[in-house]
Amino acid sequence: MRRTLFALMLAGAALASGPTAAQAPAPVAAPAPTPAQAQQTLTILQDPQKLAQLVQTLQTIAKAAPASPQPATAAPKPAAAAKPAIVAPNGLGVQLLGQVSAWSGRIVAAAAATTAEVSDAPLLWRALARTMSDPAARRTAADGAWRIALVLICGWAAELATAWALRRPAARIEAHAPGPDYPRNAWELLRRLPYALARLLLALIPVVVFAGIGNAMAGIVGGPSPAAPLVALAAVDSYAIGRAILCVGRALTAPKAVRLRLLPLGNDSAAALMRWFRRVTVIAIVGNALAQIVLAIGLPDAAHDALIRLTALAVAILATAAVIRFRDAAARYIMGPAAIPAKVPEWRRGLSRSWHYIAIAAIVAVWLVSAGGVSARLDTLDFLIGTIAILVGARVLAIVALGALARAFATDTLGTGRLRGIEIRAARYQRVFRIVVIAIICGTAAVMLLQLWGLEALGWFAPGKVGGHLLSAVMTTTIAAFLAIVVWEGSNAVLDRQIDRLRETEPARAVRLRTLLPIVRTGLLWTILIVIGATGLSEIGVNIAPLLAGAGIVGIAVGFGAQTLVHDIITGMFILIENTVQVGDGITTAGLTGTVEQLTIRTLRLRAADGALHIIPFSSVVTITNTSRSGIGNAAVSVTVAPGEDIDRVTATLVQIGKEMRADPAFAGMILGDLDLWGVDTVRAWGATLAGQIPCTVDGHMPVQREFNRRMLKRFAELGIALGGPANIAAPA
Questions:
Q1: Over the stretch 573-593, which tens digit does the pLDDT of each residue have?
Q2: Is the pLDDT of residue 539 over 70?
Q3: Is residue 57 in a domain?
């Protein structure tokens, strides 16, 4: 960069020697209107404030204009009811479309103006040719060249000496930078940031020394031409600014100091990016320096503007070439590290394939708009410095914000008390918070860049403008989404805590609540999504009343068409809420008997005694007989003895068996009372039937009944008591 700038400064000194020969005024064509009218119109168009006042005045006149009168012969029509518009005429969506149309028109106008004014570029070449054709001018240029060279050489010597003196502190900073070479998260990158900034400050000190020495020498060294000191100052300032820009770029990419790199790049990519950045910077600096020299020696403003436009064109071409050079690397970064194509979202794959087209279109649009702003003295260097400052500031702010966010949600920093559950739930939204922070930083940087590039972006946020409406819509939707997240996570936290509490004290209720949990969460989620969607549509100007009415009609139609499903769900919810059955209960329903294995919101799974699994929809459940819910199960006693047996002896034997079983430790916990013998239940020709029951627990009535029958058969056999039945009827003679 030193050699290139030095050669160009010599050419500038040559131009500085002949200001009188080059001061040929540019011809001005006489406009059709009067000069006063043209100057007044030009003043209004170039002044943003006056132009805004003119637009506001025209809008006021348009709103105040009366509607065209109806013909006198037309008969008056009855007033018809106004139909509600689907999209509000002054809504956010309409304003966005209008703003995009205005941008397109402005870019087209800038392209036309730029194309028309590039024809002034030959003015610079003709001025240089006229200057160098004069022998006296050549001698003056040579004298001014060595003086300017002396200024630059002294400044470079001071810069090199200062850099040599600071080499050891710079090496210590690079050696003590914390973290691995390639940071794994934003927190490690934030820890690296102070060291990178310290290294940048050390790199800028020699540049400041050069600027100080160069400005001092430019004021001391004179020359035969009064423009020589101005040219020297332009050379010194341009070189110092270029060196500062390169130092900032080197701080971000750090091609030779990987532990100070602030961009997620490999060594080869960082070195390549720095090379392209250096090329763009050198072109912009040299072009701006020559443009300043043109003004310093008194050449026409048209030559200065043409040189700035050509420099902007060269920068745009280099930027486009850099986009093409890094399109594959950027596409891999967009796809994500070690991404499997099948699992990458479609929008990321599409962006990775088309991002360079979008970037090239943006570069062309920015060049057109910036070239159109040359008349306001928005030089290429101003664009370059402002753009780099905004991008670097956004990157540093992103490192600080994302690093603090990563540290706040780190696993080892979460608490252990009652708030740990809330912190864990909040940590789930770390990715969402990252996206929001990145969106805010990128949006702010984009607005500042557009303002710098001449699109008057800050004016969009004036009252009644599209930017204010957009910001209000985004804020309203964001607040609605935040409240929805709070409601969602709060309800889930309450339900989970209730289930955990009931799991130890009332397991049955915990199971029932866990069964209801999916339907509750699904309903709550859909409610939240509908509210957020309606809020967003309302903010962009869409009338949601017809949409809500249509959704109600569709809901009614779906309800009629799915009556059985709705019946299943509603019945299931009430059965679960009323705790009619639980898993493990023995029930009889829909003509089937078995043990409940599983309950869902729509079906009941019943395991029969033969092992068959019955899946019963709740719409088929009319009555439920739950034999496990009362807590008491009765062991049935029923025996038929042969005719002629002593009923009192049989009764006493049965009572004795009941007392013995109640005294048996194996059955004492299952039996709740003595045998309740009701007496003779039926009398038949083949015998008399005695009936009764033994009060037992729910789980013990069947074991008690089986054991009682076993002991009864054994005791009857010992006592010779005969059992009755149809086989005991005597055959006819």
A1: 777 777 777 777 788 888 888
A2: no
A3: no
* 450-455 contact pairs (CB < 8 A, 24+): 452/383, 452/386, 452/387, 452/390, 453/366, 453/369, 453/370, 453/373, 453/383, 454/369, 454/370, 454/372, 454/373, 454/376, 454/378, 455/103, 455/106, 455/369
d(CA 462, CA 52): 12
* Cα dihedral: 243, 247, 248, 250 (round 10): 130
List phi, psi (to 5°) of 468.
-65, -40
Q: Do residues 204 and 251 share a domain? A: yes
Band (pLDDT 50/70/90 cuts) for residue 511 is low
Q: DSSP string spanning 62-121?
A: HHHSPPPPPPTTSPPPPPPPPPPPSB-TTSHHHHHHHHHHHHHHHHHHHHHHHHHHGGGT
CATH code, domain with 613 = 2.30.30.60
Residue 394 and residue 442 in contact, taking contact as beta carbons nearer than 8 Å: yes
- The Cα 38–Cα 726 span in angstroms is 129
Are residues 588 and 722 located together in one domain of the fold?
no
Residue 371: other Cβ atoms inside 10 A: 27
Among 65-79, 398-412, 507-521, the minimum mean pLDDT is found in 65-79
- Is the same domain home to 415 and 471? no
Beta bridge partners of 696: 633, 671
SS3 181: coil
Residues 263 and 386 in one domain: no
Burial class of residue 488, CB neighbours in 10 A (0-12, 13-18, 19+)? middle
DSSP state of 606: E
Largest CA distance in the chain: 166
Per the CB < 8 A criterion, the answer to whether 336 and 289 are in contact is no
DSSP bridge partners of 682: 689
| Whether pLDDT at 212 is above 60 | yes
Query: Helices in 166-225 by DSSP H: which ranges?
Result: 167-175, 186-220
Would 314 be classed as within a structural domain? yes
Last-in-domain residue among 437, 457, 477: 457
Domain shared by 162 and 238, yes or no: yes
Number of folded domains that form the chain: 6
**Number of Cβ within a 10 Å radius of residue 495:** 17
Q: How far is CA 652 from CA 273, 659, 715, 718, in A?
A: 106, 11, 12, 15
| Of 733 and 362, the one with more pLDDT | 362
Do 519 and 589 fall within a single domain? no
Q: Work out the average pLDDT over 112-132.
A: 57
User: What's 640's domain CATH number?
Assistant: 3.30.70.100
pLDDT of residue 29 exceeding 50: no
User: Is 264 among the domain residues?
Assistant: yes
- What tens digit of pLDDT does each residue of 82-100 get? 444 444 455 545 555 555 5
Interval 515-540 mean pLDDT: 73
Residue type, 234: A
Q: In what order do the strands lie in the sheet with 586-589?
A: 613-617, 603-607, 592-599, 586-589, 624-626
Q: Are 307 and 290 in contact (CB under 8 A)?
A: yes
- Using DSSP's 3-state secondary structure scheme, residue 637 falls into strand
What range defines the domain where residue 686 resides? 632-728
| Segment 24-47 mean pLDDT | 54
Comparing CA positions, the residue from 323, 247, 175 lying closest to residue 255 is 247
Whether 33 is in a domain gets the answer no
> Can you tell me the distance from the alpha carbon of 279 to that of 242, in angstroms, rounded to the nearest whole number?
11
pLDDT digit string, tens, across residues 265-292: 888 888 998 999 999 888 888 888 887 7
Give the predicted TM-score (pTM) of the model: 0.56
Q: Which of 533, 561, 589 is the last residue of a domain?
A: 561
What residues have CB less than 8 Å from 471, skipping those under 6 apart? 461
**Alpha-carbon separation of residue 663 from 178, 656, 669 (angstroms):** 80, 11, 10
Let me know whether 535 and 588 are in one domain: no
In this structure, are 543 and 605 located in the same domain?
no
